[in-house]
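Q: What structure does this chain adopt?
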Amino acid sequence: MPVWNIYHPVDAYSDHDKKSFAKAITAMYSHIPKFYVNVLFCEIRSESFFVGGVAMDNFVRIVVTHIARHLTPEKRAHRVESINQVILPFVGGRGFDGEFHIDETPFDLWSIQGFPPPPPNSEEEKMWARENRPSEWRNATGDV
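A:
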């Protein structure tokens, strides 16, 4: 699951902007169930947002956590560029300075609505994608 935390100035984005931004982010992850993609918009007052010890009112900081998939070394540069392209209209294109980074959480340290996620690209994960929700499934040993 990718989780995007977008820290931004108060009133930087309208509700429509947030919806458009979240849809653009979700579209990047067409290879996983849509409900895996979480986008959180976190308004930060300039008095609480410092870069280099200076209060900022035009800075957007994005923290992306990948859990459902991890990037191979060969795909990292491509993913960084694809994220840059997705955020450009919402950050630099609006006159904000910004940066992001990607963290990767181990797959086995994840549960969703009490269920362990099925293996990537498995029939069970495809079912989750079709149904757009998690459900109980049997692992390779037959355990639920």
